Amino acid sequence: MKKVIFALLVSFANLLALFSLRAQPQADEQPEHRKNYYSCLHGYSACDSSLLTDAERTQVSQAAHQRNFNNCLHGYSGCDSSQLADAERTHVQQAAHQRNFNNCLHRYSGCDSSQLTASEQASITVNKPDGAAAEPTPAQTTPPHFYINKDGQRVQSPTYSKTVPAGATAQCRDGTYSFSRNHRGTCSHHGGVSRWLD
Question: Which pLDDT score is estimated for 138?
Answer without folding.
Answer: 44
